[in-house]
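#struct-help
A.M.: can someone run this one for me? Single chain, 165 residues.
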Amino acid sequence: MSVAIHTIAFYPGSFDPLTNGHLNIIQRALRVFDQVVVAMAQNVNKRAMFTLEERQALVRECFADEPRVSVVIFDGLMVDAARLHGATAVLRGLRGVADFETEFQMATMNNVLAPALETVFMMTEKSHFFVSSHLVREVASLGGDISPLVPEPVNRALRLRMARK
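D.P.: on it. Structure tokens below:
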């Protein structure tokens, strides 16, 4: 007799803003996991362009037709939030070798804190290697076209935000 296991990936990040690289990781993760929980927290080391609630709404809009994606806000330890949402794995995207050292260090710490929670790394597709939320914010703030780098709801929100400044 086999037991069906419902696999949930917990994808934490600041997503300020969500980029096409993030979108790509989530879409591909849905081929591996039954559900993806996009989880955002305030990064105290970064100055946010969008509030947590605005980011949550943007990610929800981008996945409005995908019931297997949920979007949550958390504070405190990521592993505690992942366990609270029934996650079987923490999903992390890698753009290149530079990301690996930091991600490996975090994964190792998370393994100490929650040994049953696996970390799964997914490489961003090569067309997104150079894209980061920081660069998107910078290009947008200087009036550049970021439409090839972000989903349309994010592009719209960024244009509106820049028009107000």
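A.M.: thanks! DSSP finds six helices and five strands in the chain.
D.P.: also worth noting: The domain at 8-129 is CATH 3.40.50.620 (Rossmann fold).
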